[in-house]
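Reading group handout, session on sequence-to-structure problems. Before we discuss, look at one worked example. The prompt was deliberately terse, the way you'd type it at a terminal:

> structure TM2 domain-containing protein

The input record follows.
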Amino acid sequence: MSAVVGSAELPEWERLRVLRAEAEYTSVRKSRRAAYAIWVLLGVFGGHRFYLGDTGRSVAMLFTLGGLGVWAVADGFFIGRRVVAVNRARRAAIMARYGILDVA
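And the output record:
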């Protein structure tokens, strides 16, 4: 079984390194569905922001009850984009740690 990038085949050790990096990313990526579910249940307390790692903003939401509900409602429009941004940053960090140029 060989991994192919473009038209060049990867050596076995390189393929294993890529698979290891992909497995690590899979274990830390965030789910859009889970983020929305947490928003529905705990949005006013900033639970979805805790889930996505936005600790500072989530603490602010916790103590202000979601900006009296304004931030919580507004976040409903932005959660999807935030999940994509968090996942992109996590993937880039993992691939950089493994020395892999990520073009996806």
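Points for discussion. First: Residues 6 and 103 are 11 Å apart (CA to CA). Second: The first helix runs from residue 12 to 28.
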